[in-house]
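It would be a great kindness if you could assist me with a short task in structural biology. A protein sequence and the structure tokens that stand for its backbone fold form the material at issue. I should value your view on which stretches of the chain appear to form regular backbone elements. The record follows directly beneath this note.
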Amino acid sequence: MTETKGSIRLTVAQAIARWLAAQFIDIDGIETRICGGGFGIFGHGNVPCLGEALYPLRDDLPLYRGQNEQSMGFAAAAYAKYHLRRRFMFCTASAGPGTANLLTAAALAHANRLPMLMLCGDNFLTRLPDPVLQQLEHFGNPGLGVTDAFKAVCRYWDRITHPAQILQSLPAALATMLDPADCGPAFLALPQDLQGWAYDYPRAFFDRRVHRIRRQTPDSAEIADAAALLRAAKAPVIIAGGGVQYSGAVAELTAFAEAHGIPVVETIAGRANLLADHPLNIGPLGVTGSDSANAIAGAADVVLAVGTRLQDFTTGSWTVFAPAARLIALNAGRHDAAKHQALAVVGDAKLGLRALDAALTDYRAPQGWLARAQAERQTWDSYVAANVAPGNRPNSYAQAIGVVNALCDPRDRVVTAAGGLPAEVTANWRTKGIGTVDVEFGFSCMGYEIAGGWGARIAQSGVEPERDTIVMVGDGSYLLMNSDIYSSVLTGHKLIVVVLDNGGFAVINKLQNNTGQASFNNLIAYCPTVPDPFRVDFATHARAMGAIAETVATPAELADAFRRAKAATKTSVIVMQVDPYEGWTAQGHAWWEIGTAEVSDSDTVLARRAGVEAGRAAQRRGL
């Protein structure tokens, strides 16, 4: 290494690692390193140079060895979500299949607007050794490779072709990951030869730098228009999305709703903006929501959507709202604020709610409207209480959720993702602590659950070690990706994993039946290519990865096992069989548009097709 007064000679890989270690963020007056470290699987495309560069910085940028690149990306996404997008992890993968395995995780981070930095190996710039191991050759386009596939699933993408380029690319990638409107994954393709090339970098490039998240003040005219619309409202409702938490605006949301007597409904990403027993919390909204929230949203004349991208599970494919309802969208992203001809208020949720509060002065929604909303919530609470209660009936997701929810600490974090559990957790989980629910439904990605739990547990290390991370996962997602049980045991990051085994992809079997079809290729029992169906011994499998594991037969046994898991010091896995047909949450569902067959030999399929066509008549077209 050569140093002069104004420069230092480093390889590209060394410069990237040093620069990352020098970036800090101010979070509530406390400065902390913005990159919490990384997840890595080394190969020929990253270990010779990037591995060499990361080793001296292993204390500043701890590197967690993953078992699968896709699960590394899921863990990084969950880490960023836990830190409310104010900190991130990098993922490093080798050229070829190692990098390709990150594609799904990048798409998940993109859909959920989460920061994640990918440092991935690429083909040689010189092309002298071409074709190299794991290189994809495009005969008419030799520069095209696996890394180009990430352009569709990243907010920032760059291929480093000269050592000086990172002087521009690294700050640009970080600025994207920290931007409230453009936040998402950043990808740097690092050719294998270039990683080791040296350059005389300015020493000032590696000076310690403190960053802050930008808060955009909404335009005063937009605030005035929104306030005027709200002041005229007879039946207003607030939709609280995930952006409320990312803005740190939970207190402002609560104060605003209380000051003006406006009921609040939550999106899936916005679950845990309010505690379950808050008098203005009317419940989760949408396809996997609650009857209470859907009824109030359907009767509202003005809808204030705060920090939500309004995806179809929130809006019931845009059938939840009354045809004449006016929509106000307060969002840091212009794209989200302008959806469905909403009155757009582009800006930070915290600042926007404060400004709206000041503009509304002494406005309060009619007391009768709030009373109606609260009565709807009481009815819904009664339904949920009966739905989760153990009884003389088959085991269900809802019963398991009820057991875990009752016994968890208010500070515990619950993590789930694809299959039937997102709907069941959203509907039946009663929030005990703000920001303690992670239902990954932006990309609804199988396999996120255990990896995401590991990432969340890493994120809380040294902050709240007494808080448990509870993963609720179905047998299908478990089989798709479970190796981070081993990761959690290896690294000492305890998880409580509840595996609910219903014999296959039961929620898709339910969807299949609901569209008039016979059960086919979802439940193991109905796979024509399976001559002798059998169940996996998940507990034995988990024990083989070092976890404490047991199988239970009833909700009462689940409760006892969960208490033992709470008392344990390392990862515990609890397995319980649930019925694939009985016990689904039957209420709380808004209409959802799905593609159905227009031509079929089945009368039931055609009947369901007609039902979908009839439901489409209620879709909002905008005002």
